[in-house]
Amino acid sequence: MDRPSALIDTRIIYCGDCLDQLRRLPDDCVDLCYIDPPFNSNRNYEVFWGETKERRSFEDRHESTRAYIEYMRPRCVEIARVLKPTGSFYYHCDWHASHYVKVMLDQIFGENNFINEIIWKRQSAHNDAKQGSKHFGRIHESLFLYSGDAAEYQFNHVYRPYDEEYVEKFYKHIEPETGRRFQLGDLGAPGGAAPSKGNPHYEFLGVTRYWRYSRERMQKLYDQGLIVQAKPASVPRLKRYLDEGKGVPLGSIWDDIKPIQSNSAERLGYPTQKPLKLLERILEVSSRPNDIVLDAFCGCGTALVAAQQQGRQWIGIDISPTACRVMAKRLRDVSYVQESERLWRLGRGFVVRDLPQTEQQLRKMPPFEFENWAVIALGGIANKVQVGDMGLDGRIYPVSVIPTVKSGSLDFMDIWYPIQVKQKDKAGRPDIDAFEAAMIRSERMKGFFVSFDYTGDALTEIQRFFTQTGRVIVPLTVKEILEQEIARKLV
Fold first, then answer.
1. Angle at 327 between CA 324 and CA 332, to 5 degrees
2. Are 73 and 17 spatial neighbours (Cβ–Cβ below 8 Å)?
3. Is 144:101 a contact under the CB 8 Å cutoff?
4. Is residue 152 over pLDDT 80?
5. Which of 109, 214, 297, 343 has its CA 20 to 30 A from that of 385?
6. Quick check: helix, strand or coil at residue 169?
7. pTM of structure
8. What percent of the chain has pLDDT over 70?
9. Which residue, of 215, 244, 273, is where some domain finishes?
10. Residues 374 and 457 in one domain
11. pLDDT digits (tens, 9 = 90+) for 82-92
12. Residues 6 or more apart from 50 whose CB is under 8 A from it?
């Protein structure tokens, strides 16, 4: 794809607070922005990250709706600034704060630039309306659509197929020769007999009235077999074929896109993951090929995948390093685009920017994020924190034994090395003892341990373990990983 703008780089995932990154973007540079920020729901989410099945508890950080709106306001102000006058902005939210979000967006974008509230019907029933509850089932989410300028914004009409009931009712005629369904439409002048509108008045097939078309056009349609007269002197009717219709114009209630199910092929386990079809529709309505699409809370990257596959340019931002690595992997595996600085500069690959690069940054990272960072940095796959993980944080599969055919899982392979990660200033002997037990249980002869540093007792125990059992524990420090000094220890 060609570079769309001399002012802005695309096909980039930025790791960090979107407020900081948005402030670096120039005015009027984005064609379409979609965000699905954390809802103010006060719920804990249990997250299973795709192949890794890493489990994590996500807690909404916003103690009140007011705090949530105060958090989102400056970010939405920046989005309004970077959005082109021809651009569109979709804010995805649920019932917890949607009404407050709408008021905030009216203030930022202007009430006249509000286009639609789109209702996405997620499902037909929900267990939050089970017996004993005192509310209706909450089965939808809202998308607020705003434009950069209500007079200029890009909008492509999309049509849905007619449903079976509509077809049976309105296209009840079937042509015997072809089997094509059709309905009979009115040939009379729109609005009735109105000479002032310039409708032609003449006799056709024995019927005199104001007609929709000229006499010449009517005769041509008749010769083509498209005008039907049930009996002499009856009003002629026009055949309108079902297969020539565009369908039903897309409305503001979207009930034909199902949520991610537990058995969905695209499911990664992200708690609020949206189906790819939802983002594809948004892009189809509000963008054109090579337009710039921004997702400032891109989570597992659904909007980026949709943009890549539909020939759009894109920018993704997320504060979670793990999310950034997950979406990068998804782009590689699903969209078959390579993560490469060299290819990106040539306009073909993509890059991830601003991942944590210092020990100080890594010390502040949540434990789950730190563990995933360390495992991924070693080229490993994070383990599932469930029964059967043997107390390990990840596994390294030697490149020489990984099959070339993608199976979606490497669990069947027996050649792997365990990884243990501790976000400690110094891992001690008890930490090493626990890892030794895990190695023995999993029958591994070699494993890797990651920490900021190690006590003398820990290093002594690693040597003793090797002397007595022949099993090797490779102690790695965060500094060694950051300085890329680990290659010699991974062999």
1. 125
2. no
3. yes
4. yes
5. 297
6. helix
7. 0.71
8. 83
9. 244
10. yes
11. 999 999 999 99
12. 268, 269, 326, 329, 330
